[in-house]
Amino acid sequence: MSANNGAAVINVGVIGAGYWGPNLIRNFMEMPKTNLVAVADMKQERLDRIAKQFPAIRTVNDYKELFNMGLDAVVIATPPATHYMIASDCLRHGLSVLVEKPLTLRSEDSEALIDLAERNNLTLMVGNTFEYNSAVLTLKQLIDDGELGEIYYIDAVRTNLGLFQPNVNAMWDLAPHDISILLYLLGKEPTSVSAQGGKSVFKHIHDIVYMHMQFGENLLAHVHVSWLDPCKVRRITVVGSKKMAVYDDVENLEKIRVYDKGVEVPPYTDTFGEFQCSYRYGSIVTPHIHFVEPLKMECEHFADSVINKTTPRSSGTVGLRIVKVLEAAQQSLDSDGTPVPIAPTPERLRENDVRSLMQSMGLDGHTPVNQPSNGTSIPTQR
Description:
The protein is of the alpha/beta class. Helix content is 31%, strand content 28%.
């Protein structure tokens, strides 16, 4: 760690320069809190493109060469099956880690990474970009302030045509985004999940999945993901007892609309004629959202967490919770939709979530996660 005009600066390396890596590279290059030293990727043509765009960055084919470059942290943007191996290797070499979603493909591996980071006093963070999305933050504020009333259910849809992945199905590829949003919005873990899907194009990979999550007795959440849809949809609908809200990430301007609509059930009656529900059709309000690139906020939050030794919002524990949901959903998917219970996260690890929440609210003396004051172009996250 070095200093720039008295402010701490961390030396960073990026592992993986494929689909999402260039966006991470751009952000860490632009941040005053980070010095991007090197990029590692097995494909030389990717490194050649990075070297042409950023000549000052060192490029290597083997990520292990980063261990001798005086780095403080690494960012891992490689295929999910490699996350555990690379992240554990980096943590053992004293580097804090930001790893793209999902954290790992097995909950045991996620727990091992969490323990490894804690033993070495290092930061472990997952790239749940939507937890740093201004629209999602606004939606959470509406829920937490009681603006929508008691939440009845949440419906999430994430569909498009492609991109097909060879090693993971559509659920493991797309659903981590929506699961992370649901867990963040509700502040609780689901108790059970069921999943059904189809293998339309390749007979060994589910390209369409419907997930049904139970959050206690009275709260439901539904997630629909697909690689095989003519329309790109990124929409979350939250239905409450007072109002309803729709978050449409594809929408350029009005990303959130709050509908003053609802239904009131009359007192118990004996006859059908007396059973008349009262429906409310009020106004539609679009909250003002100062929208900036979520990935920029995520990268800045990672740098702050490393510098200040604080628990990141999308910590390893959050990543573990998502992997546990995916594991249970996969088990259900493989058994034709049988509901699978989800064991709660161990109390020792749940303490990380409490610390993260307090820090994000500025209740522990550290600076809360705020919105940057300037806007920027926003690349689409899948």
